[in-house]
Amino acid sequence: MISPLVFCVVVVGIAKAGDLKAFGRIGVKALIWFEIASTVALVIGLLAANLVGPGKGMNVDPASLDAAAVEQTTGGEHLPSTTEFLLHALPESFVGAFADNELLQVLILACLVGAALLHLGHTKVPKILPAIDQAQDVIFAVVGFIMRLAPIAVFGAMAHLVGNYGLGVMKTYAKLIVLCYVAAALFIVLLAVALRLVTGLSLWKFLRYIREEMLLALGTASTEAVMPRVMQKLRRAGARDDAVGLVLPTGYSFNLDGASLYLSIGTLFIAQAVGVDLTLGQQVTVVLVLMLTSKGMAGIPGSAFLALSATASSLGAIPAGAVALLLGVDRIMDSMRVVTNLLGNCVAVFAVSRWEGALDTARAKKTLDGDYAAPPEDGDEGDGEKAVGAEAPAVEPTAAEVPASGIPTQKPKEPAPEAG
């Protein structure tokens, strides 16, 4: 459900915005924001772990740890190298990208299709864009139906967690668990400050606005479960289609702030637990290594353990088997990671949209205050076009300029030269 939705939103966003260069600027600004945010998260995690010392006093013998358990958890997978990551981002086939739910590949395909529509001109393909737009509405409607079953999913997920791990694990690792959640809360406060400074919006009002999606993410520990509805609400809150369609899915691979917090705290925890005192230089190395290994983790089984193992190996001071210390507590941390990841990416959408002039701030404030009269929940995203029109009235055609197909006409002498 995620891949078709991302494809539709990005294609429609590029085609209706009418400017491929603006789409490229959004991508560059998003990557800059992602790198800054994830680095701040890593540093906060290191500072918190140094201050509290969650692993001190455990005095664990590395020889007593079962390194094979980590291998079993990761299923023999490995983190991709930079070359492998770039090659994997290129789709082998159009259908394969959707079948495997590869978001980066789907994004590339969507950008190519959107660029092709701009290059050809909407008048040459009068039936394609309305069909994609209508497919987008259908997907949103289906997601609306599924969300009505969300409380059952949350209950089942929480029951599974307690049944599998019990309360004993939480008691044993209480210090680490509390530290991770407090560090995440601190990072969210920084996100709130950043959002206020950049856009003038309140993160707390936004949390109230997406409270149902946040509760579902908290219960299921999955951003994919809520991404369609979050995209829908971001568009309704005044963010333009192309910004939402590019920044949010890309952040799923490049802006895992919650995972960055957990990885930096986890690295110091296992070092402290086995009696290794990392120097300042080694901790700087931890940040640099995690800046690389935390990217592209989505969709890889046991990716957190792979990143931790890679970091431990790069330092040479931490036994690789020490990562097994986190096996019992990792699932409990999922909720913290997912919620922080989701909020970080939503703030990124608003911030990048504001920098690019793709955010209707007045509409966003009204929506978050509850003053904006939103259309019905299911299949209502015709208002996404209004959001675009509010930001770029010169792009939105008048009724006289729209042919029967519903596609804005382009001037013959300007057939979108950006794609050339």
TrEMBL record:
Subcellular location per UniProt equals:
Cell membrane
Example of a GO cellular component annotation carried by this entry: plasma membrane
Q: How does it sit in the membrane?
A: Multi-pass membrane protein
* Superkingdom, taxonomy of origin: Bacteria
Q: Which Pfam families match?
A: SDF (PF00375)
Q: Which InterPro entries does the entry mention? A: Na-dicarboxylate_symporter, Na-dicarboxylate_symporter_CS, Na:dicarbo_symporter_sf
Per the record, where are the segments of Low complexity compositional bias?
387-404
Q: Does the keyword ATP-binding apply?
A: no
**What name goes with this protein?**
Aerobic C4-dicarboxylate transport protein
Q: Which organism is it from?
A: Streptomyces violarus
